Amino acid sequence: MKLLPRRDFLARMALLAGGATYAATQSRFSLIQSALAASSRYADIEDYKSLVCVFLFGGNDSLNMWVPYPQAQYDNYAALRQALAIPRSQLLPVSGNEYAFHQNMPAMRDLYNAGQLAIVSNVGNLIEPTTRETYQNESVRLPPDLFSHSHQTDMWQTNLPSDVFSTSTGWGGRMGDLLAEANSNPAIPPTFTLTGSNLWQAAENQQAFSVNPFGSVQGFEFFSDAEYPPWAQSRTVARETAIDRPFRNLLASQLAGFSQDAVARVAEIKTALDGAPEIATPFTQNSFLARQLQMAARLISVRESLGMKRQIIFVGLGSFDTHSNQISDHEVLLKDLDDALNSFYLATQELSVADSVVTFTASEFGRTLTSNGDGTDHAWGGDQMVIGDAIDGGKVFGEPAVLAIAGPDDTDDAGRFIPKLAVDQYGATLANWMGISAGDSLDIFPNLQNFSGHDIGFIA
Fold first, then answer.
1. Quick one: CA dihedral 32, 38, 44, 45, positive or negative?
2. Collapsing DSSP states into helix, strand and coil, what is residue 178?
3. What is the pLDDT of residues 351-393, one digit of tens each?
4. What CATH number does the domain located at 6-215+284-450 have?
5. Are 437 and 102 in contact (CB under 8 A)?
6. Is residue 27 packed enough to be buried (19+ CB in 10 Å), middle (13-18) or exposed (0-12)?
7. What is the C-alpha separation between 415 and 405, in angstroms, rounded?
8. Mean pLDDT calculated for residue range 243-253
9. Which of 209, 169, 195 is nearest to 318 (CA)?
10. Which residues are CB-neighbours of 368 under 8 A, at least 6 positions away?
11. Does the reported pTM lie above 0.85?
12. Rounded CA separation 390/372 (Å)
């Protein structure tokens, strides 16, 4: 059989090729699902933009992160939250005094007041617009397995129902597939993850590059072409001889090529990071989230040497499933979030890209308005933050839920609020800023066509 060159082979066939490659390179080795012909729709992008997703795993209680502040509205909130209510005297009111941040989020309050942060209110997984009536009489299509961590996390990241998760891509990955052609270096993917594999960046044509946030990228030192020890060069030659040769098996040929690409890609990113100036902005070194965002800032700092016009970065923070001990646990999490997001924003200012980087929070669902005694249970809609100089900040976008048990926005009688904005609308607004066309957004966000507003408007 005549062997096709590896790139031609990928371009002609929808090859499913799997196998283990270097664990230091990727958290997992994905299957190549298809090789799409280059569209060239995004090849002429000239500016730089980066999208950074901060996923709060477990279901963040945004009802205690962002609290109504006028006395009457606060009294209603406090009566319903009971022991979980944050004392009004401790809250940090924003300009206008309509809302207040949790007392451990002074930096986010300041960013909001400075117009560099906006709140997107009551957003969550939806297939089509849903009301209390249509929810209760089951006359509307609902996200499958509502209130399940795993299913709602997957749907947040893919916008697809659970029965196709095993073969689906994420909306971050679908954007990356289109925007990759904007970057001049095809060897480096536009997607980077600082917290391991995730569905949000799953794509058809690329694998997100997984970077350890605690230091630089680890190279393949065992196969480095070093002068010492004396056997290093001969070992490298032996490896290259074993891999860089014709294979009778097509899959073996492809896997050898992938291995070669992995070594080259790691070496290129490692060289860029090792040669980059240190970022002066301080990050809390004992915070996993802060270390992730510090590495995200470093990846942004080497964008030019890596040929990046578009980057899509994923970081995560867990432990938001606050069924018990919520007051003390949640305040620690929010302080960590406040400190890390503030350091990252300051780092984008230091790098002169604060208007070119948008950071947004996500969480699989919100929490119940009512308390279970010492915490909250799984709910649905929640508030999210978007940060950056490109944001039309100091505003609330969307329609806040009516804080009432068995009220017009409650699914039942526990304060599980039905989202007014779909994740598809939230994501499409971000995609629009990244330069994705309206037509491509309809492909990336399959439920978007069911909603009248495709852009929420939080980009300045």
1. negative
2. helix
3. 999 999 999 999 999 999 999 999 999 999 999 999 999 999 9
4. 3.40.720
5. no
6. middle
7. 5
8. 72
9. 195
10. 376, 377, 378, 379, 414, 415, 416
11. yes
12. 40
